[in-house]
Amino acid sequence: MAGPTGYEPLNTLKPVAEGIWLIDGPAITFMGLPFSTRATVVRLDNGDLWVHSPTQLTDSLREELEAVGPVAYLVAPNWSHYAHVADWQAAFPKAVFWAAPGVMARAEKKGLTLPKPRDLQADKAERLWAGQLRQMIVRGSTVHREAVFFHKASKTLILTDLIEAFETEKLPAHCRPFVWLNGIDDSDGKTPPIIRWSYKDKAVMAEDLETLIGWGPERVILAHGRWYERNGVGELERAFRRVLKDHRWDKLIKHAKEKTAEHSDE
Fold first, then answer.
1. What whole-number distance in Å separates Cα of residue 8 and Cα of residue 6?
2. For the domain bounded by 13-265, which CATH number is listed?
3. What is the pTM of this model?
């Protein structure tokens, strides 16, 4: 969808912290809603650029990137964030494409040809960026397999759709009720229902969310809506409070039963 997103200027590098930038891209239309888009760029210790969820590539953006470092890695973090990968691969033919589970099947279904990817690992960072970026595919859903990353140097967590936080004042008036009803307005951004419902195993999802919180992020970058420039841990606790509350309660009950069993055996 053409028109302003509220995150202008678009298609340009915006510093987040040392060695990490975001790119606000143009809006796309999904379910009739103009979704703002956002990519994240990390400069690795060797100078290579790692690009998460590539957005629209323009000539001016390409020049900016080339001035910062060589684009070496393109990352499609979940099954709905791949649309511009082919354009980036054509512009940066030496870049290696990495994809989360479901990306290739979804692209094929949509009639889009992507370069052959390397598969992102579920539970540890790839050797090429290990030590600089932590990595995990959050478990619990057989449909939405989102790879999340944590830039250790800047304490920045990089998500895609696990949290969406639309600022309704930036949306057309007729789109605002959809955002409010789905609970993904910026006043309380969280996982949209269509994704949340796919997580049938809430216990393992909560375990992975606890791990993300344990990484201690100060910032959380989201692909859609406002991102969190501060209080990253607090925002995660708020956004995932329901699944975390149930998980922590279950752990308390289990611990209490174990203690009772111990005393019974004495």
1. 6
2. 3.60.15.10
3. 0.94
The pLDDT, as a whole number, for residue 252 is 83
**Closest C-alpha to 53, from 80, 73, 28, 81:** 81
Q: Which residue in this structure is represented by tokens 């959809």?
A: 178
DSSP per position, 139-186? -SBSS---EEEEETTTTEEE-SSSSBBB-GGGS-GGGHHHHHHTT-BG
Across 137-158, average pLDDT: 97
| Rounded (10°) angle between helices 241-265 and 202-214 | 100
Residue 15: how many other CB atoms lie within 10 Å: 9
For the chain, the domains span 13-265
Enumerate residues 6+ apart whose C-beta is below 8 A from 124.
Answer: 130, 135
On average, the pLDDT of the chain sits at: 94
Tokens for 98, please give them: 């990495």
What are the beta bridge partners of residue 73? 50, 96
Distances (CA, A) of 21 to 103, 164, 185, 198: 24, 19, 24, 31
Q: In sequence order, which residues have a C-beta less than 8 Å from that of residue 55 and are 6 or more positions away? A: 11, 23, 24, 25, 26, 37, 38, 39, 84
CA 217, CA 240: separation in Å to the nearest integer?
Answer: 15
